Amino acid sequence: MSKAKSWRVTDEFWKRVEPLIPIRQRLTDQAYARKAGGGRKPKDPRLVFGIVYVLRTGFQWKTLPAERFGSASAIHARFLEWEKAGVFEAL
To answer: Is 54 left (phi over 0), alpha (psi -120 to 50) or beta?
Structure first.
C-alpha cells in the first residue's frame, strides 16, 4: 500500500470540505464587462483546494505547479474568498 501525500485531498476528506465551500454567484447589482457565462470557467473547487499544498509545504503561492493547480493568483484569490467565508475555521 502506498503512503498518501499529506497535501492530497482524499475522497473522505473532500466529503467534509465540499459542503463548506461557498457557491460563487454573480452580483445582480454590479455592472460587468463580460456577459454571464463569458470568459474562462472557474476551476473545480476540489482542484483549487490544492491550497492545502501551500499550507502544508510552506511553498510560496507563485511556486505552485500551474499545470496541476492553475494560476497562483487565481488560487490565492479563492483562498481569500474561502478564508472570508470561514471555510478553514469550520474545518
So the answer is: alpha
Do the beta carbons of residue 26 and residue 36 sit within 8 Å? yes
Q: How far is CA 26 from the centre of its chain?
A: 18
pLDDT in tens, 17-75: 899 998 877 667 777 666 766 667 777 888 888 777 677 777 787 887 777 777 888 88
**String of b and e for 50-82 (b: at least 16 CB within 10 Å)?**
bbebbeeeeeeeeebeeeebbebebbeebbeeb
4 pLDDT tier (thresholds 50, 70, 90): low
Query: What global pTM score does this model have?
Result: 0.69
Residues 46/14, Cβ–Cβ less than 8 Å = yes
| Rounded Cα gap, residues 12 and 18, in angstroms | 10
